[in-house]
């Protein structure tokens, strides 16, 4: 039987949390309610260490390969949007690209990033769509942050997330995605289904690491 812990789940706040796995670097816990797998807070990087790691990223808006990667979210999302929709790219990173792709398709897009575009006024407006690509795995308080951006969506709006999904404990053991020291939360389809029920949202899975939530 898995060992119980006293850590609440950072997504749903449940106390039904058990030890999931440990490797040479970190421990991983899993919530029995929403199935989130997460690293305990005392093993998170400091803000300075986290930013230093992000500074190594080389996301070039002119890189066709990077654009193709982002199109896995952009393409199905664009099919859902009305002309000239207003959007927010949350966690845009050091080389904002998805926002440019959406703007090229005729939409207005604001960007927010706590390190590279810290304009908090963006988080006091409302949007027809919000994107977060390779972001949610970095959130130390995912429940709080995801509820906040969900509240910024207009009725009928779309939230698009891109993150690789947990498929099981054995696969997780050998999963390269968990080895990034800034990745501290890992979601499965069950986790996103849980969020969909909480938000009373329609949930779509257009790609292996993409999920769309529709605010009914």
Keywords for this entry:
216 residues; alpha/beta; Rossmann fold; six-stranded mixed β-sheet; four-stranded antiparallel β-sheet; 26% helix; globular
Describe this structure in words.
The strands form two sheets. The protein has a six-stranded mixed β-sheet, with helices on both faces. It has a four-stranded antiparallel β-sheet with strand order 1-2-3-8, with no helix packed on it. 26% of the residues lie in helices and 25% in strands. The protein has one domain (17-57, 64-214): Vaccinia Virus protein VP39 (Rossmann fold), CATH 3.40.50. The longest helix is centred in the N-terminal third of the chain and has 15 residues, at 64-78. The radius of gyration is 17 Å and the shape is globular. It is built from six helices and ten strands.
